[in-house]
Structure formats: structure tokens, C-alpha cells
Write a structure and sequence with these properties.
The complex is a heterodimer of chains A (246) and B (250). With 246 residues, chain A is of the alpha/beta class. Chain A folds into two domains: 170 residues, P-loop containing nucleotide triphosphate hydrolases (Rossmann fold), CATH 3.40.50.300; 67 residues, no CATH class. Chain A is built from seven helices and ten strands. A six-stranded mixed β-sheet of chain A has the order 6-7-8-3-9-10, sandwiched between helices. In chain A, strands 2-1-4-5 form a four-stranded antiparallel β-sheet, with helices on one face. In chain A, helix 2 runs parallel beside helix 4 and helix 3 packs across helix 4. The longest helix of chain A is centred in the last third of the chain and has 18 residues. In chain A, 42% of the residues are buried. Chain B is mostly helical and 250 residues long. Chain B has one domain: MetI-like fold. Chain B is built from eleven helices and no strands. In chain B, helix 6 runs antiparallel to helix 8 and helix 8 runs antiparallel to helix 10. Chain B is globular, with a radius of gyration of 22 Å. Chain B starts with 9 loop residues before the first helix and ends with a helix. The chains are: A alpha/beta (246), B mainly alpha (250). The structure holds adenosine-5'-triphosphate and magnesium ion. Adenosine-5'-triphosphate binds next to helix 1 of chain A.
Amino acid sequence: MIEARGITKIYPDGTRALENINFEVQNGESCAVIGPSGCGKTTLLLIFSGILEPTAGKVLIEGKDLTSPSQELALIFQDYGLFPWKTVYENVSLGLQLRGFGKRERTEIVSSLLKELGLQGFETNYPKQLSGGMQQRVAFARALALNPRILLMDEPLSSLDALTREHLQNLLLRLWKQKGMTMLLVTHSIEEAVFLGKKVIVLSPRPGRVIKTITNPYMGDVQYRTTEVFFEKCREVRQSLDGGAI
Amino acid sequence: MQGSKAEPRWWSYLIAALAIYGIWHALSVLLNSIALPTPLTVLFAFIAGLKKDLISHLLISTFRIACGITLAFSLAVPVGLLCHERSVDKFVAPLIYMLYPIPHIVLLPVIILLFGIGDLSKIIMIEIIVFFQILVTTRDASRNISTNYFYPLLSMGARGREIYEHVIIPVCIPKILTAMRISVGTSIAVLFFVESFATTHGLGYLIMDAWSRANYPDLYAAIVMMALLGFGIYLMLDRIEKRVCRWVYI
Ligand SMILES: Nc1ncnc2c1ncn2[C@@H]1O[C@H](COP(=O)(O)OP(=O)(O)OP(=O)(O)O)[C@@H](O)[C@H]1O
Ligand SMILES: [Mg+2]
């Protein structure tokens, strides 16, 4: 279980980004965080990943304080995750290299992942030579290479066109179900939050506070998108967002 | 070939050389002065020079400039990269701000007093000037790396040396090489200056010597050789840049 306990973040310049954030995500659960631009979503993820220290409060992973980047945790960003000076192969195997995996093992893990994500044959390409959707799949592969139990994502699909986006949402759903990871997804798309979050946490405008936690028990199927329940949930999320803005 | 980043081909160099030849020829005919011989006359002097000592002077000049640039590179790059750390930059930044704007060539008398009039003082003079050009660029580059590159790396647990290896150095290399390419012109000018007195070797000496003998074809032959030296170094750095920073040029 990962828990946010009273997290408050005030940047050195006085910007109050987050205020007393409390929630938890169960093991194997997927949780979407949604909120207006600038409400502190990225800040929250950086704190969860152990890169940024909260001003007050703490993150607990399995009840233990998180103090530095955790081995069990992988992070995916919007459009700046990949290193343009590394090939697809080098990007994906970087985490394994840093954790001291041998060359043979690395090749094995990376090629099976690339195959799984439909990136076979692009090993020696540079990110610049790939489409946005493919680049984001490389970023997924890089995060998954470490076989994380917890996957943190900051608007991973927001720079993609609608079709690719839906395609990768399905991919994420499949990966989540298949690997049983705990997922924490930051997004500002209501549909995405409802499609991918078993729990949707709605944040207020800056400084971000939790205004509502919406449970979304029927998610988990690709067809969910077309159901009446889905639209109903989207409406519920939209209403809470609007409520926070007033 | 793809538009903007396409390299000039060999024939485009040929066309440029022919154009320079044509303009030079036209000017010398128009001016009709012994101070500007025709390129053909210079070509003959150049070939005659090759049979005499032009090559050995070229080699000495190449040695001095190569040592100067190499030394500058190997000192400036580590310092510039380490300026990424605030604790290092705190000490280096004020030094750069105070020392960079002064024209370092005025240090020549001091350098000669300290290191004699041999090759060493010439190399050090080139080194000092190129050092600052590379240092300033490297420092700027290493201090302005988007945090977006660090987050994913940090989240994978990288620290210290690994951050340099995977982010800081790759980001800075293209800028360092560009700085070096730009500093070739300066270093050739300094080379000429330090070779123009108190020595009997090097292309700078050859130019001054031909000038004092009023042998203009020889003068131009030496100038052409110096230009070729600059061109050669520039091309070499360009090649290295294309190879090392392949990801920039695809
Ligand atoms: N390093 C920083 N120093 C000072 N203020 C910062 C810093 N980083 C972010 N902020 C401020 O903190 C607030 C929250 O930023 P954050 O990036 O977490 O928002 P966000 O919810 O991710 O926004 P978006 O939806 O646009 O990505 C913003 O007002 C931002 O300007
Ligand atoms: Mg953000």
C-alpha cells in the first residue's frame, strides 16, 4: 500500500503547491489523480517518487517512510522521459544498467519488452526518429524493465492524438491487469481518469487539496468506455471539478 | 540528402575553392600591385615551398596548436562540467567573470618570462585563450540542463558519477565541440602572433620572414598554408562532432 500522510509542499519561493494531502492506494489498485492545471499534480508525483521532499507530511510505502527513490517504483513523464542521445535500446536498458544487471540479462529483458510493446526492429533508432506514440511506448518499456511494483505516471498520454491516446490507454489497462502493479496516474483528462482509475482523486486549484475521492468499481475492461456507467462517472468527476473551481 | 542538416559535399568545396581563386585572380589583375600576386604565382611558390621547408614549418605549427587546444580542452571541460555543482560554481564563477573579459594576449610577456621563448610559452598562450572560450561555453551548458532529464534518471536511482555519464556529459558535448570549432579561428590568430617573433620555426615565422624579404609569393604561400591548417582542424572537429553527436544530426 502507498499512502500520502498530510503532505504539504511550499516551494522555496513561497509558492504553496499542495496542502495536507491524504489518501492511499492499495496494492494492485489503480488510482487516477485529476485537478486543474497548476494545482500541484506533478509536485505530488515527484514527492511520491522520492525526488522532492515535502515541506510537511510523508509518503509511506508498505508502512515505511520513503526517503530516497525506491527500487520498487518507476516513473513515466509526459513527453520528456527519454534521452535523445540514447537509442531505444539504450534508453530501455538504462535502469537495468544502473541496477547492475549483466549484459546478457539486459538484452533478454529489453528485447522481450520491446516485442511486447510492438517496438521490435527499432532498437537502434533514436527517439527523434519515432512517432510520439512510439516514444511513449519506449518510455513505458523503460519503466517496466525494472519490473516495478508501483508505477507513477504524470500525464503520460497528454501529448498524443486522440486515436493513439486511446490505443495506449488500452495498452496501459492491459499491462496493469497483466502485471498486477499499483498504478498512480496523474491526468487532466476526465475520460482517462475514469477509464484507468479504480479510484479517482479530485484535487482543488492551487494549493491542491483533495476535494473528493470517487470510487469507480466497474473499470477494468476496454469496453467500459462505451457504457452508461462510464458516462455517469465522468459526469460525477466533472461536477466535483467544477465545484472546486467556484 | 535531407535539407537543412546536409553536409557540404566535396564538389561544393571545389566550387568554393574555384570561386576564391577567381575572385583573388580578378583582384590581383585589377590592383596590379606586387603586394597581391596572382593565385597562380602563389601556387608555384607554394609548390616550391613544399619541396623546401614549408612542410616542416607546418608540422611545428600544427604541433603547437594541437598541444594548445588539447591542453585547453582537457582542463576546461572537467572544470566547466563540474560547474553543474553549485558548490564548485560558487568558486569558479567569480574567477571567470573577472578573468574572461581581459584580453589574455597581453599576458604574453609574463608567459615568456615564466616559460621561456620556446614552444612551451607558445603552447601555453594558445591554451589560455582557448581554455576560457571552452570553459565559458561548457559552464553555461552544464548549468542549463532541463530538470526534465534528471527526474527520470534520479527515479531510477542514479547518483553522482552516473548523472554525469548519462545526462550532463551527453548534453554538453555538442556545445563543447561547437565552442572548439569556433575557437579554431582565434587559436590560429594567436599562433601567428606568438610565432611572429623570437623564433625561426613555424608558419608565423615564415610569413614574417617572407614579408621582411619582400618576397610576396612566399608570403602568400605561407598564408595559404596557415589557412589550410585552420581549415584542416576545423574539418576534423566537424567530423568528430558529427560522429560523437550522431543523435543531433539524424
Ligand atoms: N521548482 C518550483 N519552484 C517554485 N514553484 C514551483 C516549482 N515547481 C512548480 N511550482 C509551482 O507549483 C505549482 C504546482 O506545480 P505543478 O507542476 O505541480 O502543477 P501541475 O498540477 O502538475 O500543473 P499542470 O497540470 O499544468 O502540469 C504551480 O503553481 C507551479 O508554478
Ligand atoms: Mg504537471
